């Protein structure tokens, strides 16, 4: 699929080394459905493979990052449709297969699957008035794309339990205060700008080191502290086999800016 043939997303490269993906299904507040997710996966994989790209930003509109999974698409599904067809399994490509960092810039509504998609990203930025939450309980279901796991890991059990059981939504400011968001911004423009700036910073480093950073931080979510630290040390040792380790350390000694080989 060529870039211009996307129907539900827009892709661009607004800054050096940075790939931007904007969800673009305005009539449904970027409600997520399979055709959109397949385009998103394609764009993420294309940037992931592109050697000129070092980091990505995922955003929606000022009104909605994504107002959830498409309720109208889900309404008629029965158990066999959901289980038999592995409904929403394709959503897991972002957290499971993408190796370069992805920053979400969350403005407006990020509800249900929209909140889950934002939390699948490696860094979450939002604007103060963003409206996040897991309101699935109100529809007679539960979070289905990782929300119960990622929200709980990020903000703790009691608060996550309260939010998921009541369906209460929360602001971008709350997301920041609780540690779910790494940064909060006054306006959507500043939020996207901040995300692009951070992505540009990351894209300026050795791709090898960046990839290793993402891998070891993610391991901390699955491993105990001892195994995690041992894992980190092995990856750290491995980086002494890279050209960029020599380049980075020699540049420091010479007080020069490192010119990475990304090897
Ligand atoms: N799905 C489908 N259409 C949607 C969705 C959605 N999630 N959200 C909004 N829309 C549509 C509306 O139906 C409306 O369409 P139309 O103009 O044809 O009537 C259009 O977008 C604009 O929406 P509103 O008129 O409602 O806009 P408001 O500004 O008045 O309200 C809200 C905005 C508060 C965001 C409101 O639209 C809303 O409550 N939306 C639903 C939010 C929600 O409950 N999301 C969670 C969905 S469940 C989920 O995501 C589960 C994920 C995991 C799946 C696992 C399944 C196994």
Automatic annotation (TrEMBL):
UniProt KW ATP-binding keyword: no
Example of a GO biological process term: fatty acid beta-oxidation
UniProt cross-references to Pfam families, sorted A to Z: ECH_1 (PF00378)
Origin superkingdom: Eukaryota
Record bears the keyword Amino-acid biosynthesis: no
Protein name listed in UniProt: Probable enoyl-CoA hydratase, mitochondrial
One CC-aspect GO term: mitochondrion
One MF term in the entry's GO annotations: enoyl-CoA hydratase activity
EC number: 4.2.1.17
Enzyme class, first EC level, given as a word: lyase
Provenance organism: Friedmanniomyces simplex
Family indicated by similarity: Belongs to the enoyl-CoA hydratase/isomerase family.
Alphabetical UniProt keywords: Fatty acid metabolism, Lipid metabolism, Lyase, Virulence
